[in-house]
Every structure is written in C-alpha cells, then in structure tokens.
Design brief:
Largest sheet: none
Number of strands: 0
Shape: rod-shaped
Radius of gyration: 35 Å
Order of helices and strands: HHHHH
Distance between the termini: 95 Å
Mean pLDDT: 80
Number of helices: 5
Length: about 110
C-alpha cells in the first residue's frame, strides 16, 4: 500500500457546484451520444486501403501502355486488325478454328 493521500477534491459537488454540473453534463452527453458501429468503421478503414491499392495497381499496370503506345502507333500495329477480326467473328456468330486463332496470334505457318 501507498501512504500518500488521494486528492478527491475535484469530486466534491459542494466545493464548486458550477464546475461539478459541467462535468456531469459533459459525462452524460458523452454517454448518451450514439456510438459508431464498429463493423462500419472497420469496413471504411479497409475499404479506403483497398481502393488505394487498386488505384496504385491500375496506374502501375497501365503506365507502360500509356507511355509506349500513342494513337498513331496503335493504328499502325496489327493489334487493331486482330480486334476487328475477332469482332467480325463475334458478329457473325462464327467459331474460329484453332488454325485461325494461331494465325491471328502471329504464329507463322499456322494454316
């Protein structure tokens, strides 16, 4: 045990009644305030982190594409032709053969 006396004068309601009422009112207001739902708080905290990680991954993934392919390079490359060919197959409802897919991917002598 400790022999020092405790100072409990701040709890004396007769010493300073105005201050005592203010403390009681503040304590009651804090107790009656609605508490935030813990699940919602955790969801928001994890959600912000997930959105940040997703944004970083999107930028890192698309950065080489944005820096290397301009509009003139995309039109000059064969990728546009490949997209148009696949779109034509889809529009016609055709199922391409394995040889057609290999030829489209650039494998030499696929047919």
């Amino acid at each position: 045990m400790d022999d020092q006396r405790l100072d409990l004068s701040s709890l004396d309601r007769h010493g300073d009644p105005v201050r005592y009422r203010q403390r009681v009112s503040a304590l009651a207001a804090a107790a009656l305030a609605p508490a935030p739902h813990p699940f919602l708080h955790e969801f928001m905290a994890w959600g912000r982190g997930a959105v940040a990680v997703g944004a970083i991954l999107a930028v890192v993934t698309w950065l080489p594409v944005w820096s290397s392919v301009g509009p003139s390079q995309a039109a000059a490359s064969g990728s546009v032709d490949q997209v148009l060919q696949v779109a034509a197959w889809a529009q016609a409802g055709a199922i391409p053969s394995d040889a057609d897919l290999l030829a489209l991917s650039g494998v030499p002598d696929a047919r």
